[in-house]
Amino acid sequence: MTEKTKQKKIADLGNDPVGPLLLRLALPTICAQVVNLLYNIVDRIYIGQIPVEGKLALTGMGVTFPVITLISAFSALIGMGGSPRASIAMGAGEHEKAERTLGTCTAALWGLAIALTVLFLLFQEPLLVLFGASEDTLPYAMQYLNIYVLGTIFVMTALGLNGFITAQGKSDIAMKTVLIGAVLNVVLDPVFIFVFDLGVRGAAIATVISQAVSALWVVRFLTGKTSTLRLKKTFFRLDRRLLLPAIALGAAPFVMQSTESLLSVTFNVSLQKYGGDLAVGAMTILTSVAQMVQMPLMGLTQGAQPILSFNYGAKRPDRMKKVVQYNLLGACIFAFGVWAVSMLAPHMIARLFAQDSALIEETAWALRIYFAVGFVAAFQNTFQQCFVALGEAKISLFLAIERKIILLIPLILILPHFFEDQLFAVFFAEPVADLLAAATTTTLFLIRFRQILRSVSQEKEKATP
Fold first, then answer.
1. CA distance 94 to 99
2. How many CB atoms are closer than 10 A to CB 418?
3. SS (HEC) of the chain
4. Residues near 282 by Cβ (< 8 Å), separated by ≥ 6?
5. Exposed e or buried b per residue across 280-291, where buried means at least 16 C-beta atoms within 10 angstroms of its C-beta
6. Using CA atoms, how far apart are residues 140 and 55, in angstroms rounded to an integer?
7. How distant, in Å, are the alpha carbons of 121, 258, 389, 397 from that of 393?
8. Sign of CA dihedral 277, 274, 258, 340
9. Buried (b) or exposed (e) across 120-148, using 16+ Cβ within 10 A?
10. Contact predicate 22/326, CB 8 Å
11. Within 10 A of 346 (CB to CB), how many other CB atoms are there?
């Protein structure tokens, strides 16, 4: 490859046309998010198709989500906090410090994985009841969680250490980590669920095997010669001086993910109270659809972040505005498209996840309520992530907490007292919270972004001779 060809392959964040540049950077991140989504969606689709018991099995799996979310949150606490620290060390020429950070974070991840495995195995039954499992759905929830929890170390290794591959600028390798596990899960699910007739246990086994293969892929790469950062036995120990700063940086994504667990518990308990297993089963499907909206939007904003951040640092307000405009345009086209399908064809979406006619009808009814203003996700996601790209992490974290903790959870608990149809009120809490949160985020962003653009323009004028 000639030097000229290499230069063409390198994205020029400061000069390449914004539209094509955003498309170029966003497509891999969108693909990675969509592929990662397969892990969660495929199990639910196959389980929902199990004859006779599919409805209860799907509902039982739904009440395990808080545990699964917590495992992912702890992975983010270490991985998403440690990998940027390793990148900073590499940029400063402190290669050994970067590798020590990798070793420390690996030791922390594996220690946490063992602790969480023991904790969930010992207390899974009372936890699942707390999370909304009924007498009928508890056996299915325990069947799934018993096996899934045994693979916690694989899940946390794959999720937590993959960021250290991306930190080296090797996003193609990091994407393969996700792709390998997801494709394997798609293939193994029907084999274990239907061919071996293992039902819910089969779905869990397929997921654990897939995550184990992904974990082995990550470890093999990080211990191999092609990795810039090497995972070495010498550095495999807990170093407080390196671990504490990583945890501090990973606290924000940890809070954002762990609050999803609390939100899931609140929904499940309220829905079980007012609508029983059928309502909890419908919520399992709604959560899947919500992820189908959120993941691609996250991929788009992740592609836009480096462009916005670079031009913010380069004091290019003209390009900053274009990045936000293109990002919002793409997000709106996608979000409005999914919202339209949800409103016009809710039964079609429900049939992807279920065969039971009662569950399909309940889901189709709830989908129109739950996603009544689903298109506002374009504004919420775009502006919240733009705050991160502009270094306004505290505002971004507040906005995430505002939607879930300040608005949505209280509304789930309060609204049923003001509506005759209490089940409707629980589902209705989602669009009310979405609308209020999006309005707050949009207002704050428009005010703050104008201030930032004004400040950048003034600094540019002062720097111009």
1. 9
2. 8
3. CCHHHHHHHCCCCCCCCHHHHHHHHHHHHHHHHHHHHHHHHHHHHHHHCCCCCHHHHHHHHHCCHHHHHHHHHHHHHHHHHHHHHHHHHHHCCCHHHHHHHHHHHHHHHHHHHHHHHHHHHHHHHHHHHHCCCCCCCHHHHHHHHHHHHHCHHHHHHHHHHHHHHHCCCCHHHHHHHHHHHHHHHHHHHHHHHHHCCCHHHHHHHHHHHHHHHHHHHHHHHHCCCCCCCCCCHHHCCCCHHHHHHHHHHHHHHHHHHHHHHHHHHHHHHHHHHHHHHHHHHHHHHHHHHHHHHHHHHHHHHHHHHHHHHHHHHCCCHHHHHHHHHHHHHHHHHHHHHHHHHHHHCHHHHHHHHCCCHHHHHHHHHHHHHHCCCHHHHHHHHHHHHHHHHCCCHHHHHHHHHHHHHHHHHHHHHHHHHCCCCHHHHHHHHHHHHHHHHHHHHHHHHHHHHHHHHHHHHHHHHHHCC
4. 271, 275, 359, 362, 363, 366
5. bbbbbbbbbbbb
6. 11
7. 36, 17, 8, 6
8. positive
9. beeebeebbeebbbbeebbebbbbbbebb
10. yes
11. 22
Using CA atoms, how far apart are residues 229 and 233, in angstroms rounded to an integer? 13
Tell me: the pLDDT tens digits for 378-412?
999 899 878 876 767 678 778 878 888 999 999 99
Question: In which region does residue 316 sit, left (phi positive, over 0), alpha (psi from -120 to 50) or beta (all else)?
Answer: beta
Residue 268: both structure tokens together = 């499940």
Asked whether the beta carbons of 169 and 154 are under 8 A apart, the reply is no
Q: Distance between CA atoms of 387 and 199, rounded to whole angstroms?
A: 44
Residue 351 to residue 361: CA distance in whole angstroms? 10
Structure tokens belonging to residue 96: 């050994």
**What is the per-residue pLDDT across 216-274, written as a single tens digit (0 to 9) for each?**
999 999 999 899 899 999 999 999 999 998 887 777 778 777 887 788 889 988 999 99
Q: How many CB atoms lie within 10 A of CB 208?
A: 20
| pLDDT tens-digit map of 120-172 | 999 999 999 888 888 888 999 999 999 999 999 999 999 899 888 876 767 67
The residue to which tokens 């900073």 are assigned: 88
Distance of CA 405 to CAs 264, 408, 443, Å?
A: 12, 6, 20
Cα separation, 127 vs 144, in Å, equals 14
Contact 229, 88 (CB under 8 A): no
Cα 460 from Cα 449, distance rounded (Å): 16
Give me the count of residues in the chain. Answer: 465
- Are 231 and 219 within 8 A, CB to CB? yes
